[in-house]
Amino acid sequence: MEQNNHYFYVVECKDCTYYAGYTNNLQKRISVHNEGKGAKYTRARRPVSLIWHEVFTSKTEAMQKEYWFKQLSRVQKQAYIRREQEKQNEITKKL
């Protein structure tokens, strides 16, 4: 992963809740969550599993996406993730 990448990510916690965040090092951030050193929200809900991420060229864009996502209801979040995963699957099939 390049240092210039900025990530919006969503993890699913052990209790089936979602946590959305921003990072510039995705693998490290997921590890930190699972070590109990990440966000207070995820500490008691470990382990977490990465279910979605998007890459941006600026921190601002990634954080705007995080904010937008957090405004959605759970049903809307699920629909968004499902829709984006389907798009990604279609792209992968064409390769």
UniProtKB/TrEMBL annotation:
Tagged with keyword Hydrolase: yes
Alphabetical UniProt keywords: Endonuclease, Hydrolase, Nuclease
Gene Ontology molecular-function annotations: endonuclease activity
Stored CDD domains: GIY-YIG_UPF0213
Boundaries of every GIY-YIG domain copy: 4-82
Pfam families associated with the record: GIY-YIG
Record-linked SUPFAM superfamilies: GIY-YIG endonuclease
Similarity remark: Belongs to the UPF0213 family.
Protein name per Swiss-Prot or TrEMBL: GIY-YIG nuclease family protein
Originating organism: Priestia aryabhattai (Bacillus aryabhattai)
Organism placement in taxonomy: Bacteria, Bacillati, Bacillota, Bacilli, Bacillales
